[in-house]
Amino acid sequence: MKKIEHIGIAVKDLDFSCGLYERLLGTSCYKKEEVASESVNTAFFKTGESKIELLAATSENSPIARFLDKKGEGIHHIAFEVDNIVLEMERLKLEGFVLLNEQPKPGADNKLVCFVHPKGINGVLVELCQEVK
Fold first, then answer.
1. Which residues fall in a coiled-coil region (predicted)?
2. Angle subtended at Cα 101 by Cα 57 and Cα 34, rounded to the nearest 5 degrees
3. 66 CB contacts (<8 Å, ≥6 apart)?
4. What beta strand segments (E) does the chain contain?
5. 71: number of Cβ within 10 Å
6. How confident is the model over 59-113, as pLDDT tens digits?
C-alpha cells in the first residue's frame, strides 16, 4: 500500500456538508460524482496530499444509508492507494482478511476499488483503490 488515498465521511446532507468542509478546509470541492452501483453521491476535497470524500446516500437501502442509521454521521472508511489492486487483494486474502467483493469494481474519482471487512481490522472499513489509467 502506497499511502492513505482518502478518508470517507458519511453525511446526511451533501450540499450542507460541502459548505461546512469548504469553510473548514479553506478550499472548494473539486469534484462531485454519483456512484449509482453504491447508491451514493460523493464530493471530494483535497488538502495537501490528502483527500476527503463526503458520501451521501441516494437510496434508503444503500450501504451509506444503513451506516448513517446505525452509527450516524462520521468517518465511514479509510482508503489506501495501491499500484495493483488485484495483487493486493490476493495478498490480503492470503493474510486471512475478508474482502467484501471478489473482484475490483468501479468507484468514484476514476478508481477501481475493493473493500476489506471491518470485523478483521478493529472495526475499520478499509478501501483499496487503484487509479484507472
1. none
2. 30
3. none
4. 3-10, 31-35, 40-47, 50-57, 74-81, 105-107, 111-116, 126-131
5. 11
6. 999 999 999 999 999 999 999 999 999 999 999 999 999 999 999 999 999 999 9
Q: What is the pLDDT of residue 81?
A: 96
- Residue 59's nearest CA partner among 49, 69, 48 is 69
pTM for the complete prediction? Answer: 0.92
Taking the CA atoms of residue 114, residue 116, residue 118 and residue 122 in that order, the dihedral angle to the nearest 10 degrees is: -130
Contact call for residues 81 and 1 (beta carbons, < 8 A): yes
Amino acid (one-letter) located at 18: C
Closest by Cα among 60, 62, 80, 65 to 125: 80
Tell the residue number behind the cell numbers 454521521, with chain if given: 73
DSSP-derived secondary structure letter, 64: H
